[in-house]
Automatic annotation (TrEMBL):
Taxonomic path: Bacteria, Bacillati, Actinomycetota, Actinomycetes, Micromonosporales
Protein name per its UniProtKB record: DUF4307 domain-containing protein
Keywords assigned by UniProt, alphabetized: Membrane, Transmembrane, Transmembrane helix
Transmembrane intervals: 32-53
The species this protein was found in: Micromonospora narathiwatensis
Superkingdom of source: Bacteria
Amino acid sequence: MSETHATIAPGTPVFPPGRYGRRREPGRRRPVLRALLVAVLLAAMGLVAARLYTQYGDPDYQADVITYTGITDSRVVVDFRVTLPPGGSATCLLRARAHDGAEVGHAEVAVTTRPGERHVTVRHEVPTTARPFIGEVLRCRPAD
């Protein structure tokens, strides 16, 4: 018959002293370590987000299509406006698509503003391999 102690809750197993090693206290946690790991993870995610934003999401280089005209079997003329840093320059990628969505032409256009200005309006002809349905500006990025 095993011995029970009055201080042990009913249903808790009783082990002979020294036989099974040291027992851990139930519910012992390390909240400082967990908080530190969460803080390091959030900092790393913030750095990655900032790097991706500066690489792909620069709001200083924004293009808006004004109109696309002059559609023939071999070209489309795209008029667009680019917002740049004052006196800056950019390279914009234009694309022409057919009615089924397939790309039928593309062109890279170098855009430069005059000193002190932030906006420039550009008209560029995009050569195509088939009749285009739409002309669009995919993106503008800082000039190399």
